[in-house]
Amino acid sequence: KEKLDAKFYGRKGEKLELGNREQTQDVLQAVRKAPFVVTEVRPSERRRNPGAPFTTSTLQQEASRRLGFTAKRTMRVAQALYEGITLGKEGSVGLITYMRTDSSRLSPQAQEDAKSYITTKYGAAYSETRQYAGKRGAQDAHEAVRPSYPDRTPDMLKEYLSRDEFRLYKLIWERFIASQMSAAVYDIVSVDIESAGYLFRAQGSRIKFPGFLLVYQDTKDDDKEDDKLLPELKSGQELKLSRLTDKQHFTEPPARFTEAMLVKTLEEKGIGRPSTYAAIVDTILTRGYVVKEQKRFFPTELGQIVVDLLKEFFPRIIDVAFTAGLETELDDVEEGSVDWVKLLERFYQPFEHDLKHAESEMQAVEIEPEVTDVVCELCGRNMVMKTGRYGKFLACPGFPECRNTKPLIKETGVKCPKCGGDIVERRSKKGRVFYGCNKYPECDFVLWNKPVNEQCPTCGSLLVEKRRSGKVVHVCSQDGCRYEKEVEDK
Q: Residue 430: its pLDDT value, please?
């Protein structure tokens, strides 16, 4: 009675892509009444090594994914941990090494301290001293971001740290300790199943030896390991068909940037340095070039216009390859292999020409605000739509005489279960999206997740939408109710 999921692979041992509905229906018709027989069972073992200790870039990425921190917030908290935290009578103690670094290198003393802690806590089998190679072009001036004293565990320091400090220190400490631990070992079983000449494959895995996973696991890798063994199967065994599912997959455009994705791309393209990633993100937000919605960046009209103008009048400067190349040349100046005066001459002479051309030809651009049918209750004018740091809002065009503003209401189409009003999308003072009744303050019903126009079959509460490992699920909004169902992502 045990079930397993097997995916279509091909025919006669060769991979076959199903390019249209007709091909898919042919396969479905052929296998619907045919037996499914196990043709091969392949057990194997796989090792997975821990990631390197944090650099500035990877720290910002992981803090964004795991803790929801912005790059700016991460660096502010890391600065406090580096400068020193008062630990009772001991006084101020710097808890982490310098947090602006592009190196994964660890000092021999740090490695020895980690080995001592791991051996004592988990046993010698869990310890493996590792040194990580730096990425090409790294300055390698500082060590990786790591705890200054590895024997000071997060729990030992919790009473002295703020919530943000504790969470970030715990992240840095766990990543460092894990980097000096043994690989995780998986038992993997792959199974080939044949029906009507077509081949289906299934795979399951189980952790045989946890290694570094006892301490830390990368968020980006969480959904890559299927920690689930297949039922006991043997070659020649016939299986019963439970159901056939055909899903059409469309080619999707690249996902919009989150902070973690943007910082990673900046590093990969060679743009900026560890000390500038947070400043770059903060600048495009504060100047209104982008807004952040559901943790992803969306360009504003102003941002699109600025980029178009820069491409037209400064095509060489706005080019990614030029920016990355200039960073490399500046490194050469630091090393003494390039004359800085000649470098400036090569840069400034064509730039001066482009600048004069832009000053004479670039037209002033004024973005006309979109007029809405919402009337300002203070002065009677029709309010206009404007864009701020946290997205669009309504403002009175009579500024500065009239300073009235309103949030832009987005309907969800779901009725409030408390009073029958409409649930609308709102933003907190810090820009976080939430959902509340439009009759506030008379009704205080709120949700942090987007409501679904559907009731929980178990308790009757509203269902809300969540994403887990790339899948959309509808879950009950009532605390204590565990109802959930997976839905198709539209």
A: 67
- Contact predicate 126/181, CB 8 Å: yes
- How is residue 68 written in tokens? 């929801």
pLDDT at residue 54 tops 90: yes
Close Cβ partners of 80 (under 8 Å, ≥ 6 residues apart): 165
Q: Which residues are catalytic?
A: 98
Which residues, 6+ apart, have CB-to-CB distance to 47 below 8 Å?
183, 184, 185, 186
Could you tell me how many residues make up the chain? 490
AA letter at 279: A
Tokens of 76: 């502010």
pTM here is 0.73
pLDDT digits 0-9 by tens, 261-281: 999 999 888 888 888 899 999
Instruction: Compute how many other C-beta atoms are within 10 angstroms of the C-beta atom of residue 80.
Output: 19
Distances (CA, A) of 102 to 63, 268, 323: 16, 12, 18
Q: Are 443 and 419 in contact (CB under 8 A)?
A: yes
The b-or-e profile of 184-221 (16+ CB within 10 A means b, else e) is: bebebbebbbbbeebbbebbbbeeebebbbbbbbbeee
**Tens digit of pLDDT for each residue in 109-133?**
999 999 999 999 999 999 999 998 7
Average pLDDT across the chain, whole number: 88
Cα(149)–Cα(147) distance, integer angstroms: 5
Cα 375 to Cα 3, 383, 411: the distances in Å are 60, 6, 19
Render pLDDT for 462-475 as a digit per residue (tens, 0 to 9): 999 887 665 788 99
Cα–Cα distances in Å, from 308 out to 98, 132, 344, 356?
Answer: 38, 41, 26, 18
pLDDT digits (tens, 9 = 90+) for 190-202: 999 999 999 999 9
Residues facing residue 11 across a β-bridge = 14, 198
Half-sphere exposure of 283 (CA within 13 A, CB side): 5
